[in-house]
Amino acid sequence: MLLDLKTLGESRVHLERTYPPSAFEATDEFIVGKPVELVCEVEKIRDWYQLAGHLSTRLRVQCCRCGEGCDTDLDLAFDLRYVSEALSAGTNDAEIDNEDLTVAFYRDDQIDLRQLISEQFYLGLPMKPLCQEDCRGLCAACGKNLNSADCGCSVEWRDPRLAVLDGLLKR
Ligand SMILES: [Zn+2]
Ligand SMILES: [Zn+2]
Question: Distance from the CA of 150 to the center of ligand 2, in angstroms?
């Protein structure tokens, strides 16, 4: 998934790439559930390359309440400035702020599209994925998934911090 900058030729190139889910390794947070579509414009501006475009796919994540797998669709726009690593190491350019998320680095005249894509995955990943808006989660007593059926346990879930308070009051 390397973009060879030497073969770009023109100063502005339209790029469309599709990668199968199998091209991406599963992580603890997600697996890729649909081909990844990447559409972007690559433009050479002075001594950097500007990559502006879109990425869409579907990630399979885990519901944060019940642990079941659920899908989250990604459709992300990006606009990144790719600066040569060698060039940025040698100069002290105040224009380049390493903390800036829109600045990335390339080396050996190649832009690593895999890195670009996986960074977008993490940017688009929901903080607390839910299989459904009102997921009921798991029973605190028996561990059953309450979305499929009530387990019949009479134990109400209580905040463990409150239990500590109860213990203090009883003293
Ligand atoms: Zn759930
Ligand atoms: Zn239960």
Answer: 7
Is residue 54 within 8 Å of 40, Cβ to Cβ?
Answer: yes
For 26-74, write each residue's pLDDT tens digit. 999 999 999 999 999 999 998 899 999 999 999 999 999 999 999 999 9
List pLDDT tens digits, range 84-111.
988 777 655 555 555 566 899 999 999 9
The CA 22 to ligand 1 mean position distance, Å, reads 26
Question: Both ends of the chain: CA-CA distance in Å?
Answer: 65
Closest CA to 82 of 114, 55, 47: 47
Q: Name the residue among 4, 33, 5 with its Cα closest to residue 19.
A: 33
Q: How many A from CA of 137 to the centre of ligand 1?
A: 6
Which residues line ion ligand 2, judged by CB < 5 Å?
A: 139, 141-142, 144, 151, 153
Closest CA to 42 of 106, 119, 87: 106
Q: pTM of the entire structure?
A: 0.77
Separation of CA 158 and ligand 2 centre (Å): 13
Q: Domain limits of the chain?
A: 2-135, 136-171
